[in-house]
Design brief:
By secondary structure, the chain is an alpha/beta fold. It contains 28 helices and 18 strands. A hairpin with a 4-residue loop joins strand 1 and strand 2. The chain starts with a helix and ends with a helix.
Length: 872
Amino acid sequence: MARTVRLGMGVMIAVAFVAVAVLSMQLRTELRALQQEPVDSLQWNVTQLELDVVRLEAAATLALALVQPETDLADLRKRYDLFFSRAGTVSQGTMFALLGLSDTVRPLTARMQRFLDSTTPLIDSPDENLRAALPQVVASVGALRQDIRTMGIHVIDVNAAQQDARRAKLSDILRMTAIASFALIALLMALLALALGLNNQAVRRSREVQRVTSRLAATVGTSLDAVVVAGMDGRVIDFNDAAERIFGYARAEAIGQPLGTLIVPPRHQAAHDAGMTRIKATGVKHVVDAGRIQITAVRKSGEEFPVELSIASNEGPDGMIFIAYLRDISDAQKAEAALVAARDEAQAAERTKTNFIAVMSHEMRTPLNGVIAALEIIGRTTLDAKQDRFLGLARSSAKQLLHHVNDVLDISRIDAGFMAVADDRFDLPALIATLIDPLRPTATQGNTRLDVRVLSDFPPLQGDPFRLGQILQNFVMNAIKFTKAGSITIEAEVHGITGDQADIEFRVTDTGIGIADADQARIFEDFVMVDPSFGRSGEGTGLGLAISRRLARAMEGEIGVESSWGEGSCFWLRLPLTVAGDIAIDRPAPVAEPMSAPASKLVPAFARVPLPAPPLVIPAARALDILVVEDNATNRIVMEEMLLHLGHRVTLAVDGIKGVDQARARRYDVILMDLSMPLMDGWTATAAIRADGASQGSRIIAVTAHAHPDRMDRFADPEFDRWLTKPLSTRALSAALLPDPALRTPVEDAGMKGSALPPLVDTDRLAELTAITDPQSLQRLLGRFRTDMENTIAAMTAGSGTLPLAALAMICHEGASAAAVIGASRLHYHLARMEAACRDNDRTFMQASLGESHEIWSNTWASLAVTAWKYR
């Protein structure tokens, strides 16, 4: 802003200077013209001319009055000569031209010229002739006198008007000169004030810079971290006190020394020098401005030690400088190693305890199940009243003991990370009714009323209804235990919906005995029973609320309590749930089995149904180290499961750049390279791997969604050993991994040939995925595929009219690739056609196909969900 003001004032001052200069030149010109103009000479000449005419007239009149033969006419001729001379001066002089009156005086000079032309012959004639012509001369002179007077007055008036105009112009010039001078002075004064202000500001900034510099010097000097400044030549410019303590060099000893030989270990000096050379040549920085990293440095004594390093760059007076902040982390690493060891030891002990509890729980369940079964068998026999009473006590005690064992087993499962959270569609009000109705008889026994209040309109939701029900049942059962002759209210409410996420809150409020403030945080811990009244009002292990909190956190929710002793309690659960989409998955109603069900019951039903025989797989001769370079998450999951199923070791890279880095770092037997990836495509990545690195000579197999890569010119790249086309099958993948370098042809899975429209879902493909993946992985795979495909459809719709066709082709390609992997045959076929249209610059076909894409996707997901359930 200040710079703009200064520039504007400079321009205005320059304009004012120019204006004053121009006006001064005009004023000088006008004054010089006024000095040179014969204004006074004009009036004098006009007056003299009129006076000469009067005298000539008087002489002629006198001569006429004294007309005698002896009258002397010399005086008349003298006066005529004087008038003749005056008339010549007036007619031929430059006076009128200088005054700009040439046109005005022209009638006067013409009149005089006519008089002279007619009178001069008479004046020059003999005396007798002149005497005879005197009356004529007198009359002519009298008429001339009148004309000269009239014309002279006119000339003087015109000249006066011109002089008035010139004086007015001169006055205007003087006024404008004054205004311009005043403006120039004002601007100069303002500029002076601005200069004074800037000077004061500069002085303040100089003082501030001095203060900041002093503080910075003090900060750097007292910093616990080493601060080392070096120039572009790699030599040390500054070396603070901490650097002296850490590295062992005095500051004077370090200044001017090459940084590489000063603190860089000898084995790293070549890399350091190469980095400095690269920065000088190309400006490309790897470590500089890259944040904090850990490296090894060396002291003056030659001792190497770990440091945390951060290098920043800045422009100095002599070019770029580098400021390195180094922290000795030797002690920190030792402490961290000790902490890690302690943590590992504690985790090992915790795992041992958890495993022991789990094993013991299972071991206790077996005899307990036997006891319960034996009691059930005894109950079928004929018993007397006393036997039946004791049998009932034994049954109740065995079931209570089994419940306690189940609680302990639940805790061990959750802590070991074996609990999976389902993602099923459910109706929340119906779920609450299903949970609460069986508990009403128990509440009625204690003369307690159960009320259910659904305070919002609930959309269809997706989540884990079984785990949710387990928490709510726990809340209600606790409320029933500690509420006698009172009421229990179960409330459900939607707090808000953002996008596809609904924030739900459940509250179970009772009028029971309440909980003291000091005990409210403890009741969610393991094996805690508040003593005496809260814990002893009912039976239990003190694990119910601990399990509930673990379940809530596993579902990204939280539970809590609000209570006062003697006034009842309110247990609440806040939980984010997904709003279900329009497409429902038809499946059998879930069976509300307890968490403590036998292990066989915890295995989903589809894992126990005989599956179609998986396709023939060529067994691997040996386990291979395989790098999978694939940007699509769905494809990575499927390929990893296939390769692990075949017995190989798998490493994943999410894009071409990371694939190149990993391939260069270590050798892989085989690299599966996707071709269409952002940042770096498969062709470029393969060329980089072939150029150098540990996997330079490894087998590289191209993976593409193109139906016939062998017919495309670019697919003739000799860098690839073989080709695989999506969708991948275990048979094709196994065959491609056989060590046969002579085969450099595409390996295509058996797919649909001919012109018939492909089916919505390839059931053989889905059966193969089901065979090689566990149930939870399959469900996660389907969920990921659904998310990816919905994003793909949305991106195509949003960008159909705005995005470049190349970008749309990439979106279609990614969708087609995911569809091929999962077995969505018709969707893959449709998206591949849309991709081809984009690459052929046919935006019209692409846009026309969008509506069909939505329909095919909707039908595909519905069919895929039903088909997936069939294999369950």
